[in-house]
């Protein structure tokens, strides 16, 4: 799975990098070195603005999304905490994801992601989870493949109330390879720049062709380094979380 990641790029950088045409300054997010489920995250998506009545031109947007997809039919927002990832093997079939996979796809910019491996700790004689930061060898931003969905809050009466609608997202994952595979069996999928347009275009709805667009982040050219267990606490957030630490030699 992908349960934590790093997203520190400014919206100005992301707008340029992903050729965004529609961004709302009021949705600016602070850099995060410890993005966790239910956090607000940047997502790149294409859709027709609601203010145009759904008949206007499709625009590429940079939006603030809540990580943890809440299907439109869900009764409770809490389901999102269990739907932070969607397996590529079944994403086109699962009721929670299949509609979004066909019509509402997005990219989630990331500097890298965290995974954990159980190791023997000689100081305690017990096993513990050691976090690793996995990122592109060239330090370029990753465009993680995601889905987004709109959820109508039943506690808000008016549709035109900003609080009436919540936009949520999930990250698509696959079996891990390369550096990530030595640490955890699953990893996020990503898009290469030549596939951005096809992935985001809501008119592309063939599940097999869509799945064929997904690739290993950074083309598999990944680097993994052990980092401080401080990342385990979602309240810790800062560049120091990415500093490499020594790990006890394993038998």
UniProtKB/TrEMBL annotation:
Q: Record's superkingdom?
A: Bacteria
Quick check: keyword Lyase in the entry?
Answer: yes
* Keyword entries, A-Z: Covalent protein-DNA linkage, DNA damage, DNA-binding, Hydrolase, Lyase, Protease
Q: What class of enzyme is it?
A: hydrolase
Q: Where are the transmembrane segments?
A: none
InterPro entries registered for this protein in UniProt: SRAP (IPR003738), SRAP-like (IPR036590)
Lyase keyword on record: yes
Entry EC no(s): 3.4.-.-
Signal peptide residues are none
* Gene3D superfamilies referenced in this protein's UniProt entry, alphabetically: SOS response associated peptidase-like (3.90.1680.10)
PANTHER family with a match to the protein in the record? ABASIC SITE PROCESSING PROTEIN HMCES, DC12-RELATED
Similarity section: Belongs to the SOS response-associated peptidase family.
Name of this chain's protein? Abasic site processing protein
Organism whose genome encodes this protein: Streptomyces thermospinosisporus
């Amino acid at each position: 799975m992908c349960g934590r990641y790093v997203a520190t790029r400014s919206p100005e950088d992301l707008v340029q990098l992903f050729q965004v045409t529609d961004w709302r300054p009021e949705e600016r997010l602070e850099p995060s070195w410890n993005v966790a489920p239910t956090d607000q995250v940047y997502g790149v998506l294409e859709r027709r603005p609601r203010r145009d009545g759904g008949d206007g031109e499709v625009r590429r947007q940079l939006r603030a999304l809540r990580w943890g997809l809440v299907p439109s039919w869900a009764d409770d927002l809490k389901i999102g905490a269990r739907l932070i990832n969607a397996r590529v093997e079944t994403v086109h079939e699962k009721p929670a994801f299949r509609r979004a996979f066909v019509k509402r796809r997005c990219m989630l910019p990331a500097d890298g992601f965290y995974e954990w491996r159980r190791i023997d700790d000689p100081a305690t004689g017990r096993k513990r989870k050691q976090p690793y930061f996995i990122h592109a060898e060239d330090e370029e931003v990753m465009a993680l493949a995601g889905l987004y969905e709109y959820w109508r809050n039943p506690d808000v009466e008016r549709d035109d109330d900003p609080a009436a609608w919540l936009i949520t997202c999930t990250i698509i994952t696959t079996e891990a390879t390369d550096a990530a595979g030595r640490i955890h069996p699953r990893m996020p999928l990503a898009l290469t720049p030549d596939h951005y347009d096809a992935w985001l275009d809501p008119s592309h709805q063939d599940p097999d062709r869509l799945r064929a667009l997904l690739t290993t982040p950074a083309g598999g050219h990944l680097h993994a380094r052990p980092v401080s267990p401080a990342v385990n606490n979602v309240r810790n957030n800062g560049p120091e979380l990415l500093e490499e630490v020594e790990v006890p030699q394993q038998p």
